[in-house]
User: Fold these one by one.
Assistant:
Number 1:
Amino acid sequence: MFGFKSSSKSKRKSNKSPTTPINTSNETKHFHYVPSVSQIAPLPQNKSHGILPVLSLDGRDAPSSMPSEASENDLPSNAATSNSASGRQPVGNEVAAALAEASIPIFAWKGESDDDFWWCIKKAIGGDQGWQPNMILDDGGDLTHYCHKHYTTLFSTIKGIVEESVTGVHRLYQMCRTQTLTVPAMNVNDSVTKTKFDNLYLCRESIIDAIKRCTDIMFGGKQVVVCGYGEVGKGCCSSLRGMGCFVYVTEVDPICALQACMEGYKVVRLEEVIKQVDIVVTASGSKNTITRESLDKLKNGAILCNMGHSNTEIDVSFLRDISSNDLQIERVRTNVDHVIWPNGKRIVLLAEGRIMNLCCSSVPSFVVSITAATQALALIELYNAPPNRYKCDVYLLPKKMDEYVASLHLPAFDAHLTELTDDQCKYLGINKAGPFKPNYYRY
């Protein structure tokens, strides 16, 4: 969350986390706005083109529930933050500790239990005297859901919500349909700079890095099924095929399925290939894409991982039910578990079914910069909007802002835009400064 916060010492007994990184400052600070729960390791300025020039966020107060990435962007602003993680695993203790040392309230640590996770959310919202959030920055919708359920009075001062995930946006639209959304919300997930770069290009690189870090396997000749051919699935398929894998795709959407066919992938039902594949990657954004029945059919040594959302895509709930569970779980290394069947069969479960590339800390700083700049502009737009411009609905980021974020990152590639002539602008019916495409244009 964002806010001017005078943070007192806050402690919670925990057997799992002897060093829970939180803010311990007793004085009011003007904190830098640090998107994605902040990026902390020193980052060369040529890798943070987007966030550095973004307008000042003076006085904005917002809680955020976002993954923590190890890179640092010094945005000149006075927005204060109170942060928790967007999931139980995507937190680096060293990142959280650096935030605390910089007097930025952070309630997160690696390996949180479910109870720990919700405790951190509550602490990020609660704050101390003088802390009054007026914006929400969310990833997955957990923070927004918790506020609506337990802190309804907050929405008298909150001006808007910015959400960057498929699942979180879906939850916002559900709230719209039931008329329980009480403030405007900005859907950053479907902005072009988020969809293409954070989903497609990021996942195209990070899936290989994450699997390699965890398993050290050789990809050439492996059979892989990717469940879902959205932007995340497209990036995963492209990368896996480039490494020499035979790639199958499962899809429910005929348009996405046809796209996969045109790219040369075999579109199948999961049950057609589940017994023969070496790797299963979920990228559906749904729940129970992989069930216990699917796991029973996997061959010995198969690798199972999630690139979609949270830990809902792979149904791992039965693993926690010891009383009715005939399986054994063996921790091999961090983020790698072997699930062992009574007959000796083993499958490799990565990151406990959570988002693999976040858990394995393989998000390039350049992509973080693009996403963070998009989020910052969305926060600014909602905060500065005149009364009644935005109603209690879900909105897309204006096209002009998408183009602005993209233009900030072009210098990293020494790219030079062509400028339209006045005659060309008149012919096309657009402004020389943009926006260059209508809102309905599909990139």
Number 2:
Amino acid sequence: TLALARNGQRRLLTVTQPLTTLIPSGASVVLLNRVRYYSRPDDQGVLRLLRQVDGGASVLVGDIRQARFSYWDANGQAVTQPAYVRRVVVEVVMSDQGMHAVREISLRT
């Protein structure tokens, strides 16, 4: 197993350690990302929902009243242990219109 680093480019991975063996042509590469969803107020106190992928965060929805996260296993049962989570449901209530949006995020292991 080699450790690879991503420099922000979609198609460029850099080896972060010396190669000890040759990598055969056609070898597969698996890229694991650390993805984090969270809510946080901005400088004016407006609550926002953000998505962070491997360090860089971006605003998904601004001016929300509430964000709620629930975690589900492969059988559709609510769980609290991270090892069993296979799906995350994000519910957002917008501040100005009272709109309610739901998004499901499936996890691959």
Number 3:
Amino acid sequence: KAIDDASKGDDNKWFRVLVADIDSNAVAAAADAELTKVFKKLGD
């Protein structure tokens, strides 16, 4: 059981890192889209 819990912890850590990467990429993409909209408005 201890080994099972330890491996579960490692899996969760890897999963959290993966999700954090996806989240930051999504946030960056959303921020880029918002900036593009703002610049287009300023351009008009």
Number 4:
Amino acid sequence: MNLELFNQHLFYRGLLGFACLGDSLELMKGLEDNSVDLICTSPPFALLRQKSYGNVSSSEYTEWFMTFAKEFKRILKTEGSLVIDLGGSWMKGVPVRSLYHYGLVLRLCQSEELGGTGFDLAQELYWYNPANAPLPEEVLAGFEN
């Protein structure tokens, strides 16, 4: 482990470990192969509207995420786990959901020879969110008039 790199980005240190604040791709380069038991991440979702923290479109999402996934695969122990909070998004102008996150899961589980990372899907967890679906712009305009 590159202690100098992690000390430069140290955010919290406790009895059970530490947390760093920085570019995760750069920080992962400081970790040895097969050295991590668990990666739990909640990356920006591919939402319709651009957010201040930065998010990519659903058409670019899989390729964007694969950069991280390759590093995850490198640093995770063979028996390690990857947990991803991966939310869906809505299609522009119609009340239907995008399927980008399913495409990402499929890609993550493909073999490396087929362009994936060879992860195995063990379980799906669902977060119940009772928020209303976004309405098409024409419907919203009708409410405003």
